[in-house]
Amino acid sequence: MKIYLADKQDITRAGLIHIIGSITGTEYTYTEDKNELLEALKSQQDAVVILDYTLFDINDIEELLVVNARFPKTRWLLFSENLSLDFVRRILASSNHFSILLKESPMSEIREAIDFTIQNRRYICQSMTEMLLQPESGEEETIKLTKTETEILKDIALGMTTKEIAAKRFSSFHTINTHRKNIFRKLGVNNIHEATMYALRAGLVDSAEYNI
Predict the structure, then answer these.
(1) How far is CA 186 from its chain centroid?
(2) What is the pTM assigned to this prediction?
(3) Angstrom distance (rounded) from CA 173 to CA 162
(4) Which end of the chain is least crowded, N or C, by CB within 10 Å?
(5) Which residue positions in the chain have pLDDT lower than 70?
């Protein structure tokens, strides 16, 4: 079974390689970015992708769902530090080819998740299962954005593109895109409009500066 590692963290890669090496009949390949991953899937889509959605350069859930539809034989193990419940609920409802694993999971769960995904069986780690089963409180969670994330959110609300924000902050496109994903994750939103409306309601952006 071919396994594509779409994770930019070296320490995570090392751990995954150690586990995959103990599973017979598997081989792995790094994919550094979205384009490289798509090219790899064109040649072999009957594969498993272990994807850190938070850090990889897939822009949003809509784009991920398009890729999933394009390669229907591919199984996805979303392996990230944190994923919003709204995102997880939507991704699980969209296809049974998605499994969920948080990076806080113990080694036994990580191994089990990879085994399940290879066997084309859905896997949801214990921590995420418990969060999904918790009753909804009906109250919005406290937003905990960093100073940088708040500044970037304000720029997004003012209509600036990721490229423009990167130029303004003397940062790389990838760095700003990573901040953007983290902001969306923390706010539990899926697109710029939802993020802006959330920020306005929470008072993180001055409504006088935002032209609705």
Answers:
(1) 12
(2) 0.69
(3) 7
(4) C
(5) 136-143, 202-212
